[in-house]
Design brief:
419 residues; alpha/beta; Aldehyde Dehydrogenase, Chain A, domain 1; Aldehyde Dehydrogenase, Chain A, domain 2; 7-stranded parallel sheet; 4-stranded parallel sheet; 14 helices
């Protein structure tokens, strides 16, 4: 596919999406929810062919040498597929943001002004490896009244197509336009370039994938982008941390699932924390390789020297960087210098130290005495998420229904004219 063909394809999809978005923006909550519940039922009914499609993707990806972290994101099984269907039902049960009144006021001129939520319009999603994004993005965009154009990675093409069929069936069952959720069928990368250039057709682009993909989208897009580059997340074990709690949280934050963006990548241990050697031993014995500074290496001979690049690396693997720091000031400074603004946590029984960390660490999610693996829209009670936004404009943190809306002002007067 050449550039001209790709441009024509995305333009056609964009026009269809725009027409569908106009219908969705007026669709009743019950109708949108019915489409999602029908899609969830369709996924459950189509479990065998969906898993077969995923098995074909996994076989090709394994043969091509896809990284273990990406293979984990690609893999579906019965439990994961059940969770995908459950997420659709959960989004269907969420309050509809469209039309929600955010503000009401009546200035001296007597005009009653209300600020209400409205959909963004047409959203483009460019993503890698994760078939669940097909469903999560489709569900969130639909419930928030937006049409969406999905372009998944070629490694997940069969899985995405199978899941997309269930979404389309849900739309049909609820008498909503099929073009509300479109999947770019071609695996040619020219389609991504066409989406990046589709100003006027796509209102917002959301990339989900590796750092290279997100960086390309941010650099080349002529459409506004909502994104995060990586999840270089830190856990700081304060001197007053409970040792048993610290061990449980650190193991979970790093090793529950190493390939998710909420995984801990750097462990900071206060020089005053008495159980530091035991904490490192627990991680190492659990199969996590550690790359540390001189003081960390002195605590366990299995800790290898960290390079300058290690402090800025999102491993997405059973590897972590570890540094010994002298108090909260040093921990906060390290995060400011090396963090990606995604998710960072402090473990401590000192409330003042926790409050200071929560106030001064400038990340989208900052936690006290909890695993960074909670960086997930579902865990925040948002049903599902399109991604974790680490920028400062429009939306930050888990982007769910409200993050996919903007607002407009409505004014109701009684004949006022301005002098």
């Amino acid at each position: 596919m050449d550039v001209t063909e790709a441009t024509a394809l995305i333009a056609d999809m964009g026009r269809k999406a725009r027409a569908a978005a106009q219908i969705l923006s007026r669709a009743p909550t019950a109708q949108k929810a019915a489409a999602l519940r029908a899609a969830a039922a369709g996924i459950r009914a189509r479990a065998i062919p969906i898993l077969a499609a995923n098995a074909a993707d996994m076989a090709r990806a394994t043969e091509s040498g896809l990284a273990p972290a990406l293979l984990d994101r690609l893999r579906l099984d019965e439990d994961r597929l059940s969770g995908i269907a459950a997420a659709l039902d959960a989004v269907a049960d969420l309050p509809d943001p469209v039309g929600q009144e955010m503000d009401r006021r009546m200035p001296a001129n007597g005009i009653v002004l209300t600020r209400v939520r409205v959909p963004l319009g047409v959203i483009g999603i460019v993503y890698e490896s994760r078939p669940n994004v097909t469903v999560d993005a489709g569900a969130l965009c639909l419930m928030s009244g937006n049409a969406v154009i999905l372009r998944g990675g070629s490694e997940a093409a069969d899985s995405n197509a199978a899941l997309h069929q269930a979404l389309v069936a849900g739309l049909v069952a609820a008498d909503l336009p099929c073009d509300a959720v479109q999947l770019v069928a071609t695996r040619d990368r020219a389609a991504v370039g066409a989406m990046l250039a589709a100003a006027g057709l796509i209102d917002v682009l959301i990339p989900r994938g590796g750092k290279a993909l997100v960086a390309r989208v941010q650099a080349d897009a002529r459409v506004p982008v909502l994104a995060h580059l990586d999840g270089n997340n830190h856990v700081y074990v304060h001197a007053a941390a409970d040792p048993a709690m610290a061990r449980a949280i650190v193991i979970n934050a790093k090793l529950r699932r190493t390939g998710v963006c909420g995984a801990m990548e750097t462990l900071l241990i206060d020089s005053g924390f008495p159980a530091a050697p035991a904490l490192l031993t627990a991680l190492l014995d659990a199969g996590c390789a550690l790359r540390g500074d001189g003081r960390a290496q002195a605590l366990d001979t299995r800790v290898t020297p960290a390079s300058a690049e290690d402090w800025d690396t999102e491993y997405l693997d059973a590897i972590a960087a570890v540094a010994i720091v002298d108090g909260p000031t040093a921990a906060i400074a390290h995060i400011a210098a090396h963090g990606s603004g995604h998710t960072d946590a402090i473990l401590t029984e000192d409330r003042a130290a926790a409050d200071r960390f929560l106030a001064q660490v400038d990340s989208a999610i900052v936690l006290h005495n909890a695993s960074t693996q909670f960086a997930d829209g579902g865990e925040f009670g948002l049903g599902a998420e399109i991604g974790i936004a680490t920028g400062r404009l429009h939306a930050r943190g888990p982007v769910a229904l409200e993050g996919l809306t903007t607002y407009k002002w409505l004014g109701r007067g009684t004949g006022q004219v301005r002098a």
